[in-house]
Specification:
Strand order of the largest sheet: 2-1-3
Helix content: 55-70%
Shape: globular
Number of helices: 17
Largest sheet: 3 strands, antiparallel
Order of helices and strands: HHHHHHHHHHHHHHHHEEEH
Number of strands: 3
Length: 508
């Protein structure tokens, strides 16, 4: 799983579900169908599985639920637009309707990518980047602009928003071999993005004075500044492509433009507006019974445990194609077993916190789950953000419930020990050099040799090499001890001390 795939999956798992619930804030009546809001995360989870499998019919079928969710949202928006008597008069509804339409187009390209098809002889990289383009620039950018226009109306922002809506599909034409169209679209999108970014920075000051003081304002500021940095990169890249000069290659462009757009703009801006919405529009009292945090916590623990097994299987080469077929000896310490064990720590903490109904332990499990979602550079661990956010939300519920100091200290200690376990495993590594020879029975036998900068293959040898970052027994033992300590402290911190019975009076 590449970094581009990981960034793409962050959209359906976190960014798009938040955006769906903000559509009605930008334009009244733009709320997606209730069924979509109930199954969007399920469809996103199935889409993750589709990207873990090799491209083919099965992966494409698993990507279809996400297409159905996005297409259903776009269809509902189109029907509302047809019934609107002012449908031909420019308004914010056109921006939100365009956003959900672009999202459906992105889902179509995601299905094409998983099928492994190459329409118009497009390369797999272009197909995937088109899906990413329509999920982030296509959906988030118009929605963020509409939210900003709703809060701080401006003629210049209205023009910028129109430039984005027009520029995004024109930019996509460049992906299929129309360089001049790509340049025009990139210029329009960059101009509109700069306007939205600047307004988002200004809105951060408004949020600072509102009920969502602090986190929402800070996130809005980060989002706006990120957009002001990433949009010029898009213009530079498009201009270089048009002139035939390699100012930025595709990989560099993905790092300096795609990553800031996803992690620096899209995610923070959606979270910022979500916090502001909840602060300004508190949910009315519900007659339905409150959801049981015990059941939700155990559900999150089950999700973490299940995906920990999946990641361990991927590391072992049982699922996906992340394991190299090149020469190399087996690990002295079984990497899949250790990774699976460390990934299970938040699951154990979540189970303890749920059973004991301890908010600090649930929060600790959420923090560790979010931290381990960024452990793998390949992005295969990104799905851990979903149960991580769920655990944080569960732990934040019930502000009137008293939190004991013992549980709070236990939660902090569990976070420290859990993070220390990862640092120990990944920090106490070594470099191992080896040579490979063919045995009499045809099998390959590896022999460890001293570390050297110069390696050669002898007459009776088939390969040689050095593996950096090899796990050590010392690192594994320390990580295991720290992980067990984190779980033990969580259990002790939530154990109720025995009641002290008054002494019995002795009868003389």
């Amino acid at each position: 799983m590449s970094v581009v795939v990981a960034l793409f999956l962050l959209a359906p798992l976190v960014v798009i579900p938040l955006g769906f619930r903000l559509l009605d804030i930008a334009v009244s009546g733009s709320r997606p169908p209730t069924l979509v809001l109930n199954v969007d995360l399920l469809a996103a989870g199935i889409l993750v599985v589709a990207f873990l499998l090799p491209a083919g019919p099965l992966a494409a079928v698993l990507a279809l639920p996400w297409l159905v969710v996005t297409a259903g949202t776009a269809l509902a928006a189109g029907l509302r637009l047809l019934q609107d008597p002012n449908r031909f008069r420019p308004n914010l509804r056109h921006a939100t309707d365009a956003a959900v339409a672009f999202l459906a187009i992105g889902a179509v390209f995601a299905v094409i990518d998983r099928l492994g098809a190459r329409p118009l002889d497009l390369s797999p990289a272009i197909i995937l980047l088109t899906a990413v383009h329509f999920h982030y620039a296509g959906f988030v950018l118009p929605l963020a602009g509409a939210l900003a226009q709703r809060r701080r109306p401006s003629r210049w922002l209205e023009i910028a928003l129109g430039a984005v809506v027009v520029g995004i599909p024109i930019t996509a034409l460049g992906f299929i071999g129309v360089p001049f169209a790509n340049w025009i679209g990139a210029m329009l999108t960059a101009f509109g993005g700069l306007g939205i970014g600047l307004t988002t920075v200004l809105i951060a000051r408004i949020l600072l004075r509102g009920p969502a003081v602090g986190p929402a304002a800070g996130l809005a500021l980060v989002a706006g500044v990120s957009l002001l940095i990433s949009m010029p990169m898009a213009a530079i890249y498009a201009t270089g492509t048009l002139l035939g000069t390699a100012w930025l290659d595709l990989d560099t462009m993905a790092r300096v433009h795609g990553t800031p757009n996803a992690l620096g703009f899209a995610l923070p801006v959606m979270v910022a507006w979500t916090l502001d919405r909840r602060a300004r529009n508190p949910a009315p009292p519900s007659l339905r019974p409150a959801r049981d945090p015990r059941r939700l916590g155990l559900g999150a623990a089950a999700i973490i445990a299940g995906y920990a097994v999946v990641v361990a299987a991927i590391s072992a080469g049982l699922v996906g194609d992340l394991v190299s077929d090149e020469f190399g000896p087996a690990d002295v310490v079984p990497r899949p077993l250790l990774l699976g064990g460390l990934f299970l720590i938040p699951a154990a903490l979540a189970a303890v916190g749920a059973i004991r109904r301890s908010r600090p332990i649930l929060v600790a499990a959420g923090v560790l789950c979010l931290a381990q979602s960024f452990i793998a550079f390949s992005g295969v661990t990104i799905p851990f953000v979903v149960p991580g956010f769920l655990l944080l939300a569960i732990g934040a519920q019930g502000p009137g419930v008293k939190v004991s100091g013992r549980a709070a200290i236990g939660g902090i200690a569990a976070i420290v020990l859990g993070l220390a376990a990862w640092v120990s495993l990944l920090g106490l590594t070594e470099t191992r050099c080896w040579v490979a020879r063919t045995a009499a029975d045809g099998s390959v036998v590896y022999t460890q040799i001293p570390v050297s900068d110069t390696l050669s293959v002898g007459v009776d040898e088939v390969a040689s090499g050095c593996d950096g970052g090899a796990l050590t027994i010392q690192g594994a033992a320390l990580a295991a001890a720290l992980g067990i300590g984190a779980m033990g402290l969580a259990a002790l911190a939530t154990t109720r001390p025995p009641a002290i019975r008054p002494p019995r009076e002795e009868v003389a």
